[in-house]
Amino acid sequence: MAKHDESRRAFLVGAAVGAGAVAGTGMVSGALAQHRQHPKAAEEPEAAHGHDGGEGHGAFLNDDNAATIAAFAERLMPGAPGKPGARDADVLNYIDLALAGAYSDQQDFYRRGLAALDAYCRKTFNQPFVKLSAAQQDEVITALEQGKASEFTYPTAQAFFNAVRTHTMEGMFADPIYGGNKDFAGWKLVGFPGAQPFFTAADMQSRQAFNRAPITGLQAQAKIASRKA
Q1: For labeling, which of 31, 80, 125, 153 is most exposed (least CB within 10 Å)?
Q2: Cα dist. 94→50, 53, 59, 152, 193 in Å?
Q3: Of residues 97, 102, 96, the one with CA closest to residue 114
Q4: pTM over 0.70
Q5: Residue extents of the structural domains in the chain
Q6: What per-residue confidence (pLDDT) applies to 50?
Q7: Residue 194 CB partners (closer than 8 Å, separation 6+)
């Protein structure tokens, strides 16, 4: 992994831990849990097709925009051997479901932001974002972060960058019930044990990682509660 990739990963992981993001259960609205399954196109055509009526990816994004978000998120949280990235955690699925549900008020924000990103990449490199090399994608993302990318009005380049970065972190570290953090990839990365039913007083005081039980999420806890009811 390149030093640039490693430093970006370290920053996002550190930010997640420092902000308590690994707790995951309170990061995003509970409404996301209601959209864990992709709606059928016949039932919700507008959600399934995303913008421009293109081929549907799932809940909201069309295939082209899904590919762009997946590539953007992977550059923000790049994977490496033994270190899962955004693709491994299925961050794309998290963002797609969020935009169809709890974050539906941001659909136009994403539509316009993705269109501006495509226009900027074509103007600068004569290629869409997904066709650029990793180094070129990083250059584009840096321009967005610094507010130096042209073609953006609403949202601004920085606002779009901040939104995608925030949602990438949520998709990496929120409870898997919301569609990301596949196979607890994000939690394993930072040593978070998940939604364990209880911790002893010694566990609460310990600085060592909790490893007496498998990582568990909200969905597993809900099943346990329903069996006890």
Answers
A1: 153
A2: 15, 21, 10, 25, 20
A3: 96
A4: yes
A5: 3-192, 194-229
A6: 40
A7: 24, 175, 184, 187, 215, 216, 217
- Tokens encoding 59: 């809940």
CA angle 103, 13, 184 (to 5 degrees): 70
pLDDT tier at 194 (50, 70, 90 boundaries)? Answer: low
So what's the pLDDT on residue 56?
Answer: 45
Q: Which tokens hold the place of 135? A: 């180094």
pLDDT (tens digit per residue) in 71-86: 999 999 998 888 899 9
CB-based contact 59:48 (threshold 8 Å): yes
Give residue 20's pLDDT: 46
C-beta separation of 150 from 7 below 8 A: no
Q: Which of 82, 83, 65 has the alpha carbon at shortest distance from 164?
A: 65
Confidence of residue 217 (pLDDT cuts 50, 70, 90): low
Residues with Cβ < 8 Å from 103, sequence gap 6 or more? 167
- Amino acid residing at 153: T
